[in-house]
């Protein structure tokens, strides 16, 4: 009897958890839709947007944007596989690419944003790797995410001269939030120095006291995390390669993807905005890391629209459709390419769980 009651309680808890997840996802979709609607309304170009047709776009540039987005996905997968190889965990590049694209799909389709996609990727790894290697496999996802964030923060500072000259003069909120994101990026880079060099920094008493405080607040998790990260102290070459891959193959490639999206709207108008467009999408992607909306939709658009519009205004560039069109078009590319990851998921579901990555 007691066992039946326990099962009923667990079932009720599971139902409550599912409903909370669905409600969270619904609220995030509402927030994203609300931000997009506000940006369209604020642009004052609702009629122009509604009249825009696919035939008005240069499909060659749009196709190039989709190809570059695929390259950015491939480099994400290659970077992660490099970390798997360092831990002697067998995984083919094709499997890594499939799982990476699936994680992008689930970042759209489930609560948690990019983190939700990583949870799914971790679940797939747990089903594929032997029991003793599961933790190492899942931890590579954390390292992959960590090196990826270092890469995007570094890219933001590389684009800093163009970002600082793209702030819209009539939108102090966008300026303040962008500066806040840049400050957060600087803090993230500082944290990465501490993570990789904490053993050297622990020579100072203040650092040891801060670690002790962090340990108490996290109930020992921070120390366990740092000890686990020590397993990568011998992977200096691999970490540097991952960070460079993040800067060049992921973030700058994604910036070039957005530039192609802009050119698909009007090549003559947007051609001078090469660096400004890369800076805008980089800041937008940092904002998109926040799990407030599915895959950063809406959050990213606000910053991309503000910075691209500011760059256009400062350069004296006029475009009838405005900066809102390439901004929304980039979001459609991200959503469309992300949803294609569902094909990999369906294909992967047909495989046996016991099959390894090799």
H/E element order: HHHHHHHHHHHHHHH
| Shape field | globular
Strand content: under 5%
Domains counted in the coordinates: how many?
1
Helix % is over 70%
Radius of gyration: 22 Å
Distance between the termini: 47 Å
Q: Sheet bearing the most strands, described?
A: none
Low-confidence stretches: 352-358
Number of separate strands:
0
Mean pLDDT: 81
Q: Would you kindly provide a brief summary of this structure?
A:
By secondary structure, this protein is an all-alpha fold. The chain has helices at residues 2-43, 46-51, 59-86, 93-109, 114-128, 134-158, 160-164, 172-201, 205-217, 221-229, 236-265, 267-270, 274-288, 299-314, 324-349.
Question: Keywords, please?
Answer:
358 residues; mainly alpha; 15 helices; 78% helix; disordered C terminus
Account of the protein in words:
The chain has 358 residues and is mainly alpha-helical. It has one domain. Helix content is 78%, strand content 0%. The chain has helices spanning 2-43, 46-51, 59-86, 93-109, 114-128, 134-158, 160-164, 172-201, 205-217, 221-229, 236-265, 267-270, 274-288, 299-314, 324-349. The protein is globular, with a radius of gyration of 22 Å. The model is unreliable at 352-358 (pLDDT under 50).
């Amino acid at each position: 009897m007691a066992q039946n009651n326990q099962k009923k309680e667990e079932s009720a808890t599971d139902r409550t958890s599912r409903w909370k997840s669905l409600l969270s996802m619904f609220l995030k979709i509402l927030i994203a839709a609300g931000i997009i609607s506000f940006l369209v309304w604020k642009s004052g170009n609702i009629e122009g947007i509604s009249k825009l047709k696919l035939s008005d776009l240069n499909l060659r540039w749009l196709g190039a944007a989709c190809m570059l987005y695929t390259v950015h996905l491939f480099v994400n997968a290659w970077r992660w596989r490099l970390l798997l190889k360092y831990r002697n965990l067998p995984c083919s590049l094709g499997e890594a690419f499939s799982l990476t694209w699936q994680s992008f799909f689930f970042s759209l389709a489930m609560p948690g944003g990019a983190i939700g996609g990583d949870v799914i990727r971790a679940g797939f790894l747990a089903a594929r790797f032997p029991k003793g290697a599961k933790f190492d496999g899942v931890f590579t996802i954390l390292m992959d995410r960590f090196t990826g964030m270092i890469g995007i923060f570094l890219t933001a500072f590389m684009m800093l001269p163009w970002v600082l000259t793209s702030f819209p003069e009539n939108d102090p909120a966008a300026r303040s939030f962008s500066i806040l994101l840049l400050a957060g990026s600087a803090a993230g880079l500082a944290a990465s120095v501490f993570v990789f060099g904490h053993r050297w920094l622990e020579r100072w008493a203040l650092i040891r006291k801060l670690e002790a405080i962090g340990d108490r607040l996290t109930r020992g998790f921070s120390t366990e995390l740092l000890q686990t990260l020590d397993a990568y102290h011998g992977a200096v070459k691999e970490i540097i390669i991952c960070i460079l891959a993040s800067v060049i193959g992921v973030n700058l490639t994604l910036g070039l993807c957005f530039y192609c999206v802009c050119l698909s709207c009007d090549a003559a108008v947007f051609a001078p905005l090469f660096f400004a467009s890369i800076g805008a999408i980089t800041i937008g992607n940092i904002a998109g890391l926040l799990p407030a909306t599915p895959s950063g939709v809406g959050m990213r658009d606000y910053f991309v629209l503000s910075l691209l519009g500011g760059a256009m205004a400062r350069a004296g560039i006029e475009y009838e459709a405005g900066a809102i069109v390439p901004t929304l078009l980039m979001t459609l590319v991200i959503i469309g390419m992300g949803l294609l990851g569902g094909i990999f998921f369906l294909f992967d579901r047909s495989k046996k769980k016991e099959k390894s990555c090799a």
